[in-house]
């Protein structure tokens, strides 16, 4: 009997712009650089999977819930909400639907956008769903759970920086990177262009000649932008588009390998730029948001006046307890920290005064976004104690947080 030949499984990565499946590691890494650019340039909270879908990790979803929001527009059962964090504004949609068993479901989505020349791509991510009885108290509870308030009650500068720690840190890092990397990316883009042009000129043929002619046209079109911001970055993207359009004429294996090597060189340079800027951010020792908050409180206490000194005075009474709890918090890992937020979401109802005839609704967070509204089978349930998971007990009216258990390979630090 002959030996069974096993076909090698290739890793696949979908190009979201073309829909093509990339299998070559060099092509995949090069494309991941472009996706990383999209995340940073558009200040996105999420990342991309290898199938092209976009997702936001549960830590950010939890914090998005706590951002104060106001209703910007309202049409029947659809709402557009705006929530601000300092200089950054988030847009949400809220959809109210009737579901089985005299229930209503409120779905909160975050709307982000990717700017592509003269086009805009919208990314819609389900932040959470809240289901409860369709009674007169439903919208009151929805407003409470999703932090929806009147516009005049919201001040984007007066936020709990400890509660929004992850979002604030991410936005801060991305804004620094967006500003500090422009010259470096322009330089490595110029280096990449020179390498590609040299390869094409040294390997004549139909593919090379056609690509060079199209590139000459591109240079004329971009002549007015010479020396401008992102000039070589834009030129590199234009050259890549030309290479893709003429790829059907690329028959020379040696030429293809040389072009792949140029992409690998760019990717290596890109990762180095990314790494150096992150290291620069770390060296500057950007203080966590909560430390900034504590410093501001101490300054206000020293200056006196207003209600803040009263808060400081009340905290001094409980100083020993406070310091002890902070030590405990440091020992807790991230998972424990997020499990504790079940209290915010209604898992602990003893301290809440709900309408007498209402029952606690079901709260679902982190559902697969954009491509599917169904709960993924790989999700884990958080929020019930072991004794509450007993099959003989009725947990239908208890609050639960359902989060996706994702195992995604991130690109470099992935802004994290």
Written account of the structure:
- There is one protein chain.
- The protein is α+β, with helices and mostly antiparallel strands and 416 residues long.
- Helices cover 44% and strands 18% of the residues.
- The protein is built from 13 helices and twelve strands.
- Strands 5-6-7-8-9-10 form a six-stranded antiparallel sheet, covered by helices on one side.
- Strand 8 (103-116) and strand 9 form a beta hairpin.
- Helix 4 (165-180) packs across helix 8.
- The radius of gyration is 26 Å and the shape is elongated.
- Mean pLDDT is 74; it is low at 288-327, 329-359 and 368-416.
- Mean residue pLDDT: 74
Question: Nearest-angstrom radius of gyration?
Answer: 26 Å
Question: In percent, how helical is the residue content?
Answer: 40-55%
DSSP helix count? 13
Q: How many beta strands in the DSSP annotation?
A: 12
Spans where pLDDT lies below 50 across 5 or more residues: 288-327, 329-359, 368-416
Provide the β-strand percentage band: 15-25%
Largest sheet descriptor: 6 strands, antiparallel
N-C termini distance: 52 Å
Label the structural class. alpha+beta
Give me the side-by-side strand order of the main sheet.
Answer: 5-6-7-8-9-10
Shape: elongated
H/E element order: EEHEEHEEEEEHHHHHHHHHHHEEE
Entry keywords:
single chain, 416 residues, alpha+beta, 6-stranded antiparallel sheet, two-stranded antiparallel sheet, 13 helices, elongated, disordered C terminus
Structure summary:
With 416 residues, this protein is α+β, with helices and mostly antiparallel strands.
